[in-house]
Amino acid sequence: MKYDDSALILAAHLLQIKAVKLSPKQPFTWASGLHSPIYCDNRVTLSYPAVRTFIRQQFVEKIMQNYGKPDVIAGVATGGIAQGALVAQEMGLPFVYVRSEKKSHGMQNQIEGVISAGQSVVVIEDLVSTGKSSLLAVDALREAGAEVKGMVAIFTYQMEIAKKNFEEKGCQLVTLSNYETLIHKAIEEKYISEEDQQSLMEWRKDQQAWSNRFGS
Known about the structure:
Rossmann fold, globular, alpha/beta, six-stranded mixed sheet, 21% strand
């Protein structure tokens, strides 16, 4: 399998700064209760200027390659806010961010910032798992009359459910790196053993079955 060079570089960065941690023998527990051999926190990247710059530049490149220059950049709260603001600054574009739901007080905004019906927007996200929370932002923007060109995220676990969810919403997803690329890099750099690789690839195929091994 051929891997994209920039995706491999980013995977190496994420492993080096421990934005992504791999632990197939002592798995992490996600908020959903699912046991997982991987934990990703891309907010860590903001603390490393060189990595932060690389991500910003890759975002801009992917946006221009796949969508052209939009009218507005939108970040998904909370992980996509800082990344989106950096991208908007780099591209000289207006920036808004989208909450998971409307505020219960004040103006009751779900979209913070100024966006008008008919404007084109690219959505910035830090991480895509199932895609459910990310696509809530797409729904809100479309309800406001914006033309959502697509979404760009730093990393995806490449879950089949995410692929299905994005297809159903008619929203293109482009990512800077992904699960398979990261596992390849982790093996290459000896972060994990071949035995661990087998377990990690089994999780990729069926997260629930893998999780069930560790009980509830």
